[in-house]
Amino acid sequence: MKQLLVFVLFATLFCWLMFSPVYKHVVVLRQALLQQEADYMLEIGASGRYGYIDDTMVADSRARLSEYGFRPALLEYEVTTTSGLAGTDPAAPLERGSGLRLVIRYPYDGLMDIDRLIGVDPPPGEARLAAAGMKMSEYVP
């Protein structure tokens, strides 16, 4: 009986040690991809040509991230500005000097569930990876 218990505990610990670096790497990679996408969208959206981040840009971003394995329906985009304007309307782009802020969120998607094997609670179901940034608009009417 003691040997069976030792085997089960060892097998659990071995599984966690074997897979822990893999899923932690996936979390880090997803975070980096989200941040890269947020920076890219801000660079384009706050440029002198646009001054906004509209639904078309968000749809393109969802398509780009889906190529890396993200599920587009789970991606959440939040666009805010320092001036209080929408920041998503092509008819009213932000003028030069107004801050454009973007936050992209994505759920952990059960990646941390394996931590339960060693007694560590995974993040709650509503927890999200998030990437954010702010850039001043360069649009001049």
User: Strands of the largest sheet, in order across it?
Assistant: 1-2-3
Q: What is the helix/strand order?
A: HHEEE
Low-confidence spans: none
Choose one word for the global shape.
rod-shaped
Walk me through what this model shows:
This protein has 2 helices and 3 strands. Helices cover about 40% and strands about 15% of the residues. It has a 3-stranded antiparallel sheet with strand order 1-2-3, covered by helices on one side. The protein is of the alpha+beta class and about 140 residues long. The longest helix is centred in the first third of the chain and has 44 residues, at about 1-45. It has one domain. The protein has helices at about 1-45, 55-65; strands spanning about 75-80, 100-105, 130-135.
Q: How do the helices and strands line up, and which of them pair or pack?
A:
Blueprint: H1 2-45, H2 55-66, E1 76-81, E2 99-107, E3 128-136
Antiparallel strand pairs: 1-2, 2-3
Helix pairs in contact: 1-2
Concise account of the structure shown:
The chain is 40% helix and 17% strand.
Structural key phrases:
alpha+beta; 2 helices; rod-shaped
